[in-house]
C-alpha cells in the first residue's frame, strides 16, 4: 500500500493547473488538503506513492483524464434544493408555458446534473402539470463532466440523507413517484424516468444544441469559475436556449456586470435577451 508524503508547492500548482485546464474549476491553494484526499484513492488504485508521480502519470496518459476529473469535481446535490427556485418553476413558469397549448414538448436542460436529483425534481414538477393537462409533454436532458456521477444518475436509485429530506419535506410527492418501495430508498417511476436522458458534457466547451431548450438549470457550479470563465460558459450555452428561454443559477451566484446575453428576471432567474 503506497504511503503518501506531503504535496510540495510546485506539485500543488501543477495539479491546480490541470484541474483548471480539464474542468474549468478555479481551485485555490487553500484546497490542498481536499485535493490530496480526493486523489489518494485513485493513487492507491494505480500504485503511485507520490503526488508528483501522479502528475507525471496524468500528463503521460490521456486515459487518466476522466478518472482525474471524476476525482476532483464536487457532486453535492439533493431533491428540491432551494425551494424558492422550485416554487417559481412549478407555480409560475410551468403553468404559463402549459397554457399556451404548444404542440411540442417542453425541453429542460440540467447542465450540471451530478447524480441526477435535480433532473428528477424537474421531471416530477413537469409530471404534476401533465397529470392536470394530459396534452402537456416534456423532455429533460442532464449533463455532467463526470462519467461516474452520470452512471449513478442513469441507474436512478437513491438513498441516504437526500432521500430522507425528500420524504420528510414532500411526503405525498415522494409516495406518488417512488418505485423503489424500500425503506430509505427512492427510485423515480419508469414512466417519468423515460423522459430524462443523461449525457456527458464539459461546460467549458461549445454546446451542440441550438434554440432547443426552454429552461436551463445551471446551479451551484459557476461559483467554482473565474469571471472570465463564467462569461465563457454562459456565452457557450446561450444559443441552446430558445427566445425568452430561462436560465436558472445558484443562490450565491449572479450574472450582474458580466456582459452576458441574459436579462434579470428575479434572483436566480434570467431570460435570454433578444438578439
From TrEMBL:
One of its GO terms (molecular function) is protein-glutamate O-methyltransferase activity. Gene3D superfamilies: Chemotaxis receptor methyltransferase CheR, N-terminal domain, Vaccinia Virus protein VP39. It comes from the Bacteria. SMART domains: MeTrc. It is an enzyme of class 2 (transferase). It catalyses: L-glutamyl-[protein] + S-adenosyl-L-methionine = [protein]-L-glutamate 5-O-methyl ester + S-adenosyl-L-homocysteine. PROSITE patterns: CHER (PS50123). This is protein-glutamate O-methyltransferase.
Amino acid at each position: 500500500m503506497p504511503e503518501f508524503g506531503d504535496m510540495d508547492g510546485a506539485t500543488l500548482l501543477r495539479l491546480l493547473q490541470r484541474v483548471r485546464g480539464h474542468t474549468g474549476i478555479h481551485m485555490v491553494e487553500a484546497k490542498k488538503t481536499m485535493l490530496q484526499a480526493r486523489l489518494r484513492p485513485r493513487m492507491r488504485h494505480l500504485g503511485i506513492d507520490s503526488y508528483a508521480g501522479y502528475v507525471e502519470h496524468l500528463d503521460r496518459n490521456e486515459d487518466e483524464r476522466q478518472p482525474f476529473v471524476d476525482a476532483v469535481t464536487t457532486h453535492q446535490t439533493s431533491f428540491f434544493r432551494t425551494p424558492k427556485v422550485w416554487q417559481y418553476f412549478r407555480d409560475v413558469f410551468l403553468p404559463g408555458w402549459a397554457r399556451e397549448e404548444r404542440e411540442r414538448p417542453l425541453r429542460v436542460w440540467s447542465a450540471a446534473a451530478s447524480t441526477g436529483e435535480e433532473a428528477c425534481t424537474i421531471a416530477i414538477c413537469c409530471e404534476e402539470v401533465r397529470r392536470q393537462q394530459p396534452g402537456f409533454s416534456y423532455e429533460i436532458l442532464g449533463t455532467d463532466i463526470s462519467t461516474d456521477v452520470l452512471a449513478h444518475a442513469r441507474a436512478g436509485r437513491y438513498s441516504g440523507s437526500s432521500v430522507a429530506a425528500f420524504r420528510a419535506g414532500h411526503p405525498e410527492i415522494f409516495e406518488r413517484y417512488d418505485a423503489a418501495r424500500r425503506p430509505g430508498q427512492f427510485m423515480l417511476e419508469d414512466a417519468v424516468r423515460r423522459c430524462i436522458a443523461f449525457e456527458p458534457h464539459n461546460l467549458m466547451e461549445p454546446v451542440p444544441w441550438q434554440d432547443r431548450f426552454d429552461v436551463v438549470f445551471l446551479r451551484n457550479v459557476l461559483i467554482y469559475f473565474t469571471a472570465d470563465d463564467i462569461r465563457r460558459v454562459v456565452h457557450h450555452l446561450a444559443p441552446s436556449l430558445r427566445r425568452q428561454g430561462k436560465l436558472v443559477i445558484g443562490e450565491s451566484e449572479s450574472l450582474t456586470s458580466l456582459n452576458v446575453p441574459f436579462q434579470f428576471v428575479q434572483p436566480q432567474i434570467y431570460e435570454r435577451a433578444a438578439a
